[in-house]
């Protein structure tokens, strides 16, 4: 059995922060589960253009208010507690945070925790060694 707490991650290299986000990476590829699990905050007033070309991501909103836009179709959906969106077709998307948004996120394949967003908002394909 694997047991972790959010406090195990805060202040460690698995706690990534940027101008528009905070990602607490609770489970990563090194945990050997085939997916990674994140507690993510998108900061109020921010807009993020993202496109995960090599990963499927599921996001379940547990706090806040904002919207997600499909960058191809322009279709938008409100984000608030209880809403899930899944980027099951590697959808380029835009997140707009009216207030701080907090998500529980799952990535497959699992992230290593060392990824950084490319200029187009994506992560590189994972290495087979992860």
Question: How would you describe this structure to a colleague?
Answer:
- The chain is mainly β and 130 residues long.
- It has one domain (14-108): Jelly Rolls (Sandwich), CATH 2.60.120.
- The protein contains 1 helix and 10 strands; from the N terminus they run αββββββββββ.
- The chain has one helix at residues 6-9; strands spanning 15-17, 21-27, 36-42, 47-50, 56-63, 66-70, 76-79, 84-86, 93-97, 101-108.
- The strands form 2 sheets. Strands 1-2-3-10-5-8 form a 6-stranded antiparallel β-sheet. The protein has a 4-stranded antiparallel β-sheet with strand order 4-9-6-7, with no helix packed on it.
- A hairpin with a 3-residue loop joins strand 1 and strand 2 (21-27).
- The longest helix is centred in the first third of the chain and has 4 residues, at 6-9.
- The chain is globular, with a radius of gyration of 14 Å.
- The mean pLDDT is 90.
The overall pLDDT, averaged over residues, is: 90
Instruction: Tell me the helix content.
Output: under 10%
Assign the CATH superfamily: Jelly Rolls
Main sheet: which strands, in order across? 1-2-3-10-5-8
Count all strands and give the number. Answer: 10
* Category by helix and strand content: mainly beta
- End-to-end separation in angstroms reads 20 Å
The CATH class label is: Mainly Beta
**Uncertain stretches:** none
Q: Describe the biggest sheet?
A: 6 strands, antiparallel
CATH topology: Jelly Rolls
C-alpha-based Rg, rounded = 14 Å
User: Per the principal axes of the C-alpha atoms, what is the gross shape?
Assistant: globular
Strand % is 35-45%
Helices, by number, come to 1
InterPro entries: Ectoine_synth, RmlC-like_jellyroll, RmlC_Cupin_sf
Enzyme class: lyase
Keywords: Lyase
Catalytic activity: (2S)-4-acetamido-2-aminobutanoate = L-ectoine + H2O
